[in-house]
Amino acid sequence: MSDHENENENKAMTPEERGVQIGAALDAAAQREAAEAATPAGQARDRKTHRGVIIAAVAFAVLLVGAGIAYNVLAPKADQAVEIGGTDVVHSTEGPAEGAADTGEGNGANGATTPAPDFSMTDAEGATVRLSDFKGRPVLLNFWASWCGPCKSEMPAIQEAWKQSGDEVAFVIVNMTGMDGESEEAARAFLTDNGYDFPCYFDKANSAAAAFGVSSIPQTYLINAEGNIIGGYMGAMDDAVLAEGLRMLTDATATAQ
């Protein structure tokens, strides 16, 4: 199927259907990871090497919990933080054993094969930007609004993380302009009043919300340099959660090189 046909198909989906599609693909990828790790070759590789990419960790949960359950299905009201249950959500993908080629199947640096859906947004100067413009760099994608309490609570951590890691990771912090009355003016005033100067983008045309099926916030996605989703988090992040997500992204980049 061509990129144009894929784009038309995505546009025809409702946000809920798009969210379910992303969830199902990520769940299938996690199952492939687990199946590969259980094989003799996978176990031998795990003993052989500890380098590789962390696909999910205790603090930074896999995008979805359970087969085919999308974020928007799990979502509570936007002013409530989300508690992701479970303490053993760690899945490591290791680099290939010596002498073995990394084909991109199953475990390995190219194991994540869920493409991030593309969308358009506007930057602080009003220019149109697409998520795909950041391909080639790892991306931390975050959806927020100025009326959202949990969103505001994670902003200091995002600001500090951007100051520390903005050269290695592209921070794409997207304001859900128009969601429940959110306005660009309110978002800009909130950022200015609090001294936040990380890159902020505005979803004026509802393009991001439709592409990712966003119906509650905050949500954060991890996208590797190849443009594939490797994980995500629903709810307000603290410093430790955000640091784990950034480690996943930078580890993925280092392993791919």
UniProtKB/TrEMBL annotation:
Record carries keyword Transmembrane helix: yes
Region (Disordered) residue spans: 1-47, 90-121
Transmembrane segments: 53-74
Residue span, Thioredoxin domain: 110-254
Keyword Metal-binding listed: no
Protein name as it appears in the record: TlpA family protein disulfide reductase
Source species: Adlercreutzia muris
PROSITE patterns per UniProt: THIOREDOXIN_1 (PS00194), THIOREDOXIN_2 (PS51352)
Amino acid composition bias (Low complexity), ranges on this chain: 23-43, 97-117
